[in-house]
Amino acid sequence: MPLDEPTWWYATADSRAAKLLAPLASVYSWFATRHLLKTHPTRAPHPVICIGNFTAGGTGKTPLTRFIAELLRTEGFQPIILTRGYGGTLKGPHFVNPAIDHAAQVGDEPLLLAATNEVLIARDRLAGARAIALQKRPKNTVILMDDGLQNPSLFKDLTIAIVDGARGLGNGRVIPAGPLRAPIKIQASLADAIVINMGAETAGNTDTEGTLENHHITWLRQNFTGQILTAHVHPANETKWLKSAPAPVIAYAGIANPQRFLKLLRSLGVAIHAECLFRDHQQLTQNDAIKLLNLADHHDATLITTEKDIVRLPAYDDGSPLARLRTASQTLPIELTFTQQDNDRLKLLIRNTCQKSLNHGVSA
User: What is the CATH number of domain 7-236+336-359?
Assistant: First the structure.
């Protein structure tokens, strides 16, 4: 089953495909740079913290957004997540209600975030900020802008970019020749801090991805003037049930970087019998569900998927194959964790940013 991103994005920079697409990448790069630097951002009525990434594809942005939302609450702020709602049909502004909204309407990531946070989707981020302002929210409200580094419409009080520690910046080229959304020098200049998501297992990594990681992260450490923090992925709940799950295990996922999910399972001692990978944000069909259920029945296997995948399945039991797939599937919730030192640095950075914005009268 095809994935969204080509594997050679994360191969060597001089691959044949990258060279062929270099002229198109130059054009895309010019327009992306012009878009980022020529737009005059509008200041929102509340402090804005932006969580973004330099590349297309998964980096761990959703768990970082959840982490920072919880950190804001512990610091006495009231976060509201403003997101584009990618993969959904609603343009917004629309406040997500997880009790009645579906992933096909609002997108899987907003629905997942809405389980523990207040979430507003808006394709037009400025319109979203205005919708938040109309609520006359408390002074300690903070807008957490999900995936907005390349969106210059709103002024950001703090921008945090997250980088996949295993894949780095791929071949270092701009779309479509590589995964970068704009030249890295331009994007890095827009960030105040960078989080390196080292995943679950990093020791002894000697493959090509590890080589690329070292090269790009070294470049960032040498050239980025803001703070660079390191995070790791861990299961959010206990994992004893994995040991008692019937063997074999069938893992399926429709996320941008499914290998991170598969590596986490293996690091927990799970022997994966079959991997069923779908496109990022892909809505499974009834036939897809039937195939997965039949595969599990044939091998007497346990179906395991991600939190993002499970929210795309029906939450109600209507007897359909998709509903049965949700009931039959186990999930592995994950969370990002930091060392105490980096956790304290991130907390101080966010606290100072919010207090500075509030003291300067951003919020009425």
Answer: 3.40.50
